[in-house]
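Quick one, probably user error.
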């Protein structure tokens, strides 16, 4: 597909990135809310798709493969529709390199998804959820290192509060005793190590994916998604074949799929598309908050749907997450003085100018000393 008009040249001095999250802005809020909605539905639908013995009659790797295929089909359809409405540029001189780059997050997500099974063999789900909150801190660190985005002290405090809130929600009401405690102690070392690695991989995958999606702001998100999900289909197809290949050959790929199982496939596909939009138009911090909010909503819904008890941990966790979300999104003029804002913006401008090999004075002007609105 060729372009009717070439992409506009990148300006010498790019607009300064916002130092505040924009997940509640009118442009980004729909994607963040959609991601939270599908993240909330995901564990509930998975629970409803279980059989009477608490297991699954269908292949979980096949379910993941079908979700990747559905995401690829939806993205391809939207891309074709966009091309028919208005010619857009897709291919360029570095198209092959760009396509290969999308293999990296594909490999990371594939390894991480399979590692979770090993973790849950070593530790109980509560311990896994507690350790998984390390991804919040890893995301904040990688957000700064790889995306050159600065977080204020208030934002860092908000991230710590978020991690505490999600961790509190997983504290058991009754501590394990006797043999159960001994079992957890014997498995702790391997489980903790794998959980830390899983959290780091999850943060790396999200950060790398965001960097790819934002590398060409004018590129169609549908084309970027197509490249991502091609690799997803390849890796998940190989994983499904290796794990359940014999059963698939004898019974077929769709064996055991009930209407409830298909809702899981559709929900996972829509959730992936929503997260991609969050990374493209907001950032990874918004994804972290969407996941935390969804976690709280899932627990709240479980109280009614599965008759789960309302615990003090749940109430405290909801309050902490809500406080953290509001704290992170406070306007900059509330948490810093004008002089501090100006100093931060000048520092960001100098840093970006040095990265491009330019003079800092070229980018620090009265027009861009004012914080961008997005």
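Nope, works fine. Designed sequence:
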């Amino acid at each position: 597909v060729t372009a009717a008009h070439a992409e506009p040249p990148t300006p010498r001095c790019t607009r300064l990135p916002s130092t505040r999250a924009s997940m509640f802005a009118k442009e980004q809020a729909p994607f963040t809310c959609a991601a939270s909605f599908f993240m909330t539905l995901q564990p509930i639908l998975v629970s409803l798709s279980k059989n009477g013995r608490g297991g699954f009659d269908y292949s979980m790797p096949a379910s993941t493969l079908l979700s990747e295929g559905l995401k690829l089909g939806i993205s391809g359809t939207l891309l074709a529709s966009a091309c028919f409405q208005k010619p857009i540029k897709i291919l360029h001189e570095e198209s092959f390199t760009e396509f290969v780059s999308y293999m990296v997050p594909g490999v990371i997500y594939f390894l991480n998804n399979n590692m979770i099974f090993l973790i849950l063999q070593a530790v109980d789900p509560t311990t896994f959820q507690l350790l998984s909150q390390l991804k919040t801190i890893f995301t904040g660190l990688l957000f700064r290192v790889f995306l050159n985005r600065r977080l204020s002290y208030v934002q860092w405090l908000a991230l710590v509060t978020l991690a505490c809130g999600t961790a509190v929600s997983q504290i058991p009401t009754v501590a394990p005793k006797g043999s159960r405690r001994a079992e957890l102690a014997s498995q702790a070392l391997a489980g903790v190590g794998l959980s830390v690695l899983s959290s780091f991989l999850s943060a790396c995958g999200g950060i790398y994916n965001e960097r790819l999606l934002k590398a060409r702001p004018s590129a169609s998100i549908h084309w970027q998604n197509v490249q991502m999900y091609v690799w997803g289909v390849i890796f998940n197809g190989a994983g499904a074949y290796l794990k359940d290949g014999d059963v698939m050959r004898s019974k077929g790929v769709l064996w055991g799929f009930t209407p409830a199982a298909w809702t899981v496939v559709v929900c996972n596909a829509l959730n992936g598309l929503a997260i991609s939009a969050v990374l493209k138009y907001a950032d990874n911090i918004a994804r972290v908050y969407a996941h935390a909010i969804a976690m709280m909503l899932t627990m709240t819904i479980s109280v009614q749907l599965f008759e789960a008890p309302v615990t003090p941990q749940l109430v405290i966790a909801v309050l902490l997450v809500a406080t953290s979300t509001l704290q992170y999104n406070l306007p900059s003029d509330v948490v810093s003085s004008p002089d501090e804002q100006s100093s931060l913006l000048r520092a960001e401008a100098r840093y970006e100018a040095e990265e491009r090999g330019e003079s800092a004075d070229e980018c620090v002007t009265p027009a861009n000393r004012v914080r961008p609105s997005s």
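Confidence is low (pLDDT under 50) at residues 1-21, 362-374.
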